[in-house]
Amino acid sequence: MINNHWTCYGTEKSFVPNEDKFGFVYIITNTKNDKAYVGCKQYYIGKSKKQSKWQTYMGSSKYLNEDIKKIGKKYFTFEVIAEYKNKRSLRYYEMYYQVKWNVLTATVEGSDKPAFYNSYVGGKFYRPIESYKTGEDNFLYGKKLTEETKRKISKSSLGKKLTEETKRKLSEAQLGRKHTEETKRKMSEAQLGKKRTEETKRKMSKSLLGRKLTEETKRKMSKSRLGKIPWNKGKKYTHNEE
């Protein structure tokens, strides 16, 4: 029996890993307030397959770990939901359960407190900073929000205009970016593909005046004309044309 603090989800049965799998999706629950955290853990790291110390792992959430340290590990359950055979499946099902249980929006029954410690899903959808504040530090402290108020708060966030200071910083950040070699190559190709202006054509034509063409250059120019239709082919001359 492997010594670890994990149990199988929904039971108190000790968890025994399948060594042929890549990792597992888990849920850690605070038994004092039912607040939970959903995440995933690999068994091994890198090509060398160094063990990840999953046996003693207690989640990657800063807020979860603060609570474990504050009230003690004995008040938390560590459950394995399922194991998966590769990284792609592991990450997919981690997000699947996070979305299924609405980890960013679910609240503890009878209150407005978040039901999960998770701060984001898939690295793209983040919980607002205000939701981490507790007690009197939270501007919503002691307030019960009506559906109308929630709608207005949500609507007020849409279409906000950037301040001049924010615009300046964004502009500076953009100017400070270095072009990668790939970007430079594409820019160079785009430049070469541009059509020459009439002014450029005139200058090029002027620069060629008076130059003596080598026999090799003449041969290439002559060869390039082969197959082209002369501009005056099929044209009938009048008596006034020479």
Care to describe what's here?
Helices cover 33% and strands 14% of the residues. It has a domain at 7-145: GIY-YIG endonuclease. The model is unreliable at 133-143 and 235-242 (pLDDT under 50). The strands form 3 sheets. It has a 4-stranded mixed β-sheet. A two-stranded antiparallel sheet has the order 4-5. The protein has a two-stranded antiparallel sheet with strand order 7-8. It has 7 helices and 8 strands. The chain is of the alpha+beta class. Strand 4 (44-45) and strand 5 form a beta hairpin. The protein has helices at residues 62-71, 87-100, 147-157, 164-175, 181-192, 198-208, 215-225; strands at 7-8, 23-30, 36-42, 44-45, 50-51, 76-84, 120-121, 125-126.
Helix/strand order? EEEEEHEHEEHHHHH
Any idea of the CATH topology of the domain at 7-145?
GIY-YIG endonuclease
- Oligomeric state of the chains in view: single chain
CATH class of the domain at 7-145: Alpha Beta
Strand content: 5-15%
Q: Distance N terminus to C terminus?
A: 106 Å
**Which segments are poorly predicted (pLDDT under 50) over 5 or more consecutive residues?**
133-143, 235-242
Structural class estimated from helices and strands: alpha+beta
What's the alpha carbon Rg, rounded to whole Å?
34 Å
CATH architecture title of the domain at 7-145: 3-Layer(aba) Sandwich
Q: Strand order across the biggest sheet?
A: 1-6-2-3
CATH superfamily of the domain at 7-145: GIY-YIG endonuclease
Strand segment count: 8
Task: Write down the overall geometry.
Answer: elongated
Q: What average pLDDT do the residues reach?
A: 75
Query: Strand count, sense and closure of the main sheet?
Result: 4 strands, mixed
Supply the number of helical segments.
Answer: 7
Bin the helical content. Answer: 25-40%
